[in-house]
Amino acid sequence: MGKVIARVISGTWLARAISAILTGILAIAILTIQNANLLIAIVAVLASIAITVTIIIILPRTVVATFTEDELLVSGKRGGFSLPRDAVVNNNVVCIRRESRELSLRVVYESFDYTIPLASKRVYDRLVNGLTTHWGWIPPECPEQLIQAR
After folding, report:
1. Secondary structure class of 140 (helix, strand, coil)
2. 8 falls in which pLDDT band (50, 70, 90)?
3. If DSSP codes are grouped into helix, strand and coil, which group holds residue 108?
């Protein structure tokens, strides 16, 4: 594996945000609840923990696409694969999907079909700059058939 030139991750930021909010609410509740209501506080804490764990389990796991100098490595909940640079460039394995203001990286290979949201235009620019510099290639936009198939 060569030097990493770009990495795109679809994180579970929503689960982390919900977990942080619930933890903050519980901390404030525990500090302000009087002793008579301690049982209610304990039940609330346990319920919140159960809700948080459920959300984290239900949300899809992280998908990571790593572009190195000589290959593409993809790993996700259904497994992963690696492809040499030439196969990625020549076989249209990777494309950019544009929907209104959202950008995402779509990786389609054999039975794998991953769509990774790009968090911002800055992430997209970094990806394109890295691939242009090291691979001499810019990912094409996804054909309309692929977008409508989803």
Report:
1. coil
2. confident
3. strand
CB atoms within 10 A of CB 122: 9
Domain residue limits, the chain: 4-10+61-149, 13-58
DSSP per-residue string spanning 9-72: EE--HHHHHHHHHHHHHHHHHHHH--GGGHHHHHHHHHHHHHHHHHHHHHSPPPEEEEEESSEE
* Four-residue CA torsion sign, 22, 26, 32, 37: positive
Q: List CB contacts of 102: < 8 A, sequence separation 6 or more.
A: 117
Q: How far is CA 12 from the centre of its chain?
A: 6
Q: Are 109 and 62 in contact (CB under 8 A)?
A: no
Question: Residue 112's pLDDT band (boundaries 50, 70, 90)?
Answer: confident
Range from 25-29, 99-103, 113-117, 134-138 carrying the lowest mean pLDDT: 25-29
CATH pick for 4-10+61-149 out of 2.30.29, 1.10.10, 2.60.40, 2.40.50:
2.30.29
| Predicted confidence band of residue 71 (pLDDT cuts 50, 70, 90) | very high
- Better-scored residue on pLDDT, 125 or 144: 125
